[in-house]
Amino acid sequence: MTSDDYINIFKESGALLEGHFVLTSGRHSSSYFQCAKVLQYPRYLQMFSEKIANHFQNIELDLVVSPAVGGIVIGTEVGRAMNKRTIFAERENGAMRFRRGFDIRDNDKVLIVEDVITTGGSVKEVIQLVESHGGRVEGVGVIVDRSSGSVVLHQNQLSLTSLEVKSYEPQDIPSELAAIPVEKPGSRSLVK
User: How high is the pLDDT of residue 192?
Assistant: First the structure.
């Protein structure tokens, strides 16, 4: 499949939104990939997860880890496709943590799976978390890379589709974007 094919799937499923959005990174953009909307359809969830699982099938892995909330659905399905234990990290007091009894053992080989990256901040935090618990990150799989490949999180990184979507720091928002009401559809709440 081409990048355009993936973008068309997002458009057809209503998962590529247009407007004024605050991304998880805190940056502002005129477009937003709402992966939950596309992943609600089993055929897309299965297709995306199988493509990620197939890419990493020849490396030795112990488990799949995803950042909450966006990565949970795709990470769980990739773990199922690979028959690997699957856990997620979630924010607690602003930092990624393992909760709910999830753990990583020394030298566990980990695949990190995320839905969308812009700056890769959440994945970077999960990489550090995995390593701080003695795990070894063997790869990173992502559905959408909004950086057009400029964000490299791991030497063994797969993005099903990669494109550059302009995003802006809050102080650099163009006037035409600033004129549109702001939406915050991501999982990390705004700090007031």
Answer: 34
Which residues form the domain of 108?
Answer: 3-183
- What three-state secondary structure class fits 189? coil
Dihedral angle computed from the Cα positions of residues 38, 40, 44 and 50, in that order, rounded to the nearest 10 degrees: 120
Contacts of 164 by beta carbon, 8 Å cutoff, 6+ apart: 146, 147, 148, 150
CATH of the domain at 57: 3.40.50.2020
Short-list 131, 123, 115, 37, CA closest to 77 = 115
How confident is the model over 112-120, as a mean pLDDT?
92
Global confidence as pTM? 0.87
**What average pLDDT does the chain have?**
91
In a domain, 189, yes or no: no
Query: How many Cβ atoms from other residues are within 10 Å of residue 172's Cβ?
Result: 10
